[in-house]
Amino acid sequence: MSEFDLRSAFPLKDKTFVTSNVRWICRLAEVSDLRPDADRLSWYLVFEPEPGPSQNAPAVRKLEIVTSATHLLEAGWGQDLPDRIVEWLLTGEQDGRREWLDY
Predict the structure, then answer these.
(1) Do 40 and 70 contact (CB within 8 A), yes or no?
(2) Is 26 strand, coil or helix?
(3) Is residue 102 within 8 Å of residue 78, measured between CB atoms?
(4) What does the angle CA 73 – CA 77 – CA 79 come to, to the nearest 5 degrees?
(5) For the chain, which ranges sit under pLDDT 50?
(6) pLDDT digit string (tens) for 28-49?
(7) Residue 33: which H helix or E strand, with range?
(8) Which of 22, 11, 7 is closest to 81 using CA atoms?
(9) Number of other CB atoms surrounding residue 11 within 10 Å
(10) CA distance linking residue 2 with residue 26, whole number of Å
(11) Reduced to 3 states, what is the DSSP secondary structure of residue 89?
């Protein structure tokens, strides 16, 4: 599967998430296919604060999600993906990594 096909498999590209009165825009920066050495895909997300009148805008945040390639390509992302993203945003981490191998 090409990188373009993998990128199109991510359902939340340019989706907006709201936490603590900050609107975050989710961008898929990169996806790395670690096959055949490992049955893993690494999804690199960048969350940018939506432009607005606030002068105290938070910094850009980054999240790497590691998934099982086989499971994700066969079953797709779960319906709770947006909830998992919001949970991470609520942690306040600037740079995070999550292994969600059940996707």
Answers:
(1) no
(2) strand
(3) yes
(4) 150
(5) none
(6) 999 999 998 999 999 999 999 9
(7) strand 22-33
(8) 11
(9) 12
(10) 22
(11) helix
